[in-house]
Amino acid sequence: MTRPLRLGVVGLGAISPYYLAAAERLPEWQLTAVCDARDETLEQFPGRAARFRDHRTLLERARPDALVVAVPNDVHLPLCRDALVAGVPVCVEKPLALTAAEGSVLVDLARRCGVPLMTAFHRRYNAAVRALARRTAGREIRSVRVRYLERIEEHLGGEDWYLDPARCGGGCVADNGPNALDLVRLLLGELAVTGCEIHRDGAGVDRQAVISLHGRTGATASVELDWSYPGERKDIEVEVAGGEVLHADMLAGHTGFKASLWHEYEAILTEFAALVRTGAPVGPGAHGGLPALELVESAYRSARPAPDATAAEADR
After folding, report:
1. Phi, psi at residue 240, to the nearest 5°?
2. What is the percent of the chain where pLDDT is above 90?
3. What are residue 243's phi and psi, to 5 degrees?
4. Which residue blocks in 10-126 are alpha helix, DSSP H?
5. d(CA 132, CA 187)
6. Is residue 156 helix, strand or coil?
7. pLDDT tens digits along 16-44
């Protein structure tokens, strides 16, 4: 019988409970070590895994078979780089890195070292999204609309770095954008940004954005992002040839706050385990984080100020 893979998790913030719960449920994994720079967070960790304040010490002493990186966006590069150099496969929370240049460094390093690198776009593992992808497979898609709307303050979980553009990479376009753009890539393949409207608050954080795109086959797409939305709405509409409109509600059937994430992260770690065991340096879709970063940067370059926010609120 194949032994479970030893897993290390770096970053015990708002997203870590989903990884930890998935690792506990899945027979492919054994949680071996956790790491966080905050002493109080480590002291409160309830599990039996070894605890470290520095990821390099974790890599050296715990010798995990694979590493989950769930830290603020601005430190993805050094943590992933150290793990890849040590020969440890990495599953990193989206975005892959803070910039496309940093992401390219990691992708090139993974290829040179022959070490798997996976970006965790959890929404592509959503059951409703997967069902939609199956229904559209082989059909001509005319247009795609992704809405990713939430009030960010309700989702911080004490992680205030999301509202620091220097640490997050921007705002809703930098952080939620990769997830939403990856969904369009899942359905249409390669994309190009044709336009972008952004509304920023007084601190320079982009709170609302609409990104327009087109695919190679001529299909069009729009991604609507909102960090000031009263509540939460995350869905996809796809128009196929003939005018039929198909819909996927990512939150449907999941009662409770962020309840949809549990099954998504279980699917992520299931796929990551398969990637680690095959030893493939870069499996299909394993590092789609780089194209997503390139689309994010293209959106920012194309951006023009959005209509007045008050008018936008009135239109809802």
Report:
1. -105, 165
2. 89
3. 95, -5
4. 16-25, 39-44, 55-62, 76-85, 100-113
5. 9
6. coil
7. 999 999 999 999 999 999 999 999 999 99
Q: What confidence tens digit (pLDDT) does each residue in 106-154 have?
A: 999 999 999 999 999 999 999 999 999 999 999 999 999 999 999 999 9
Mean pLDDT of the chain: 93
Q: Contacts by 212-216 with C-beta closer than 8 Å and gap 24+?
A: 213/181, 213/184, 213/295, 215/141, 215/184, 215/188, 215/189, 215/190, 215/191, 216/188, 216/189, 216/190
Provide the residue type at 274 as one letter.
Answer: A
| 3-state SS assignment for residue 145 | strand
pTM: 0.92
Give pairs for 157-162: CB < 8 Å, separation 24+. Answer: 157/13, 157/14, 157/15, 158/13, 158/14, 159/13, 159/14, 159/72, 161/72, 161/73, 161/74
What pLDDT is recorded for position 265? 97
Q: State pLDDT tens for residues 147-201.
A: 999 999 999 988 999 999 999 999 999 999 999 999 999 999 999 999 999 999 9
The residues with which 85 forms a beta bridge, in sequence order, are: none
CB atoms within 10 A of CB 315: 7
**Longest CA span, the chain:** 61
- In DSSP notation, 242-283 reads TS-EEEEETTTT--STTTTHHHHHHHHHHHHHHHHHHT-SS-
The residue whose two tokens read 């795109």 is 213
Residue whose structure tokens are 């100020």: 305
- Bridge partners of 192? 214
